[in-house]
Amino acid sequence: MTPSAEELLTIARLYWGADEAYRFRQDPSPEDLRYEALWAEKTKERPHWGAFVRKLREAIPSCDVWDYAPGLANPSFGALVYPHHEKIMRRPQKVWVVAGYLSILAPVYTVHCVRKEYLGNQLRSAKAFLGPIPLELQGITDTVARHIEAEFGATALPLEVAQTPVPLYVNLMKPPETTLFHALFTSEPGNIL
Q1: Which of 68, 82, 152, 155 is 20 to 30 Å from 184 by CA-CA measure?
Q2: CA angle 108, 36, 76 (to 5 degrees)
Q3: Which domain of life is it from (predicted)?
């Protein structure tokens, strides 16, 4: 069962501050200390996540699947799925990436898409799409979701709950822009490799 927005906010408040009192201080806030301690504990689960990513590669042989867990930067483990593409030419090209995140704060996950636009080898823009999945990526997103559920017992965080505004400062996100998505998964959903 998916926790409610209120329950998730209560959890998020343990790890993210409600003000900027510690922003320019050298000593960490109580939330920072709890977050760092949780990541230190979750680091022990990295081999399990790595094995999961390898299984996901086998389940989606038509794609490249990469581990994406930048430690303290995101409150989640992540997997990026890149459908195979022809070599990027000199003309503008759009590339879709599927991102699956398993929160370390609560037993929830999300799968969304990022559209990257290139000119040659240069990334021009990246935009996250948290809402409806493009039809051509639906099979990939369904596979990622099924595997996360089966391996970790997490439940999908509904979009309407994920988009709930929260009065928290999450990395560079600040109210009123901050949502539960930012607090539980990543503050920069479009900023991926």
Answers
A1: 82
A2: 25
A3: Bacteria
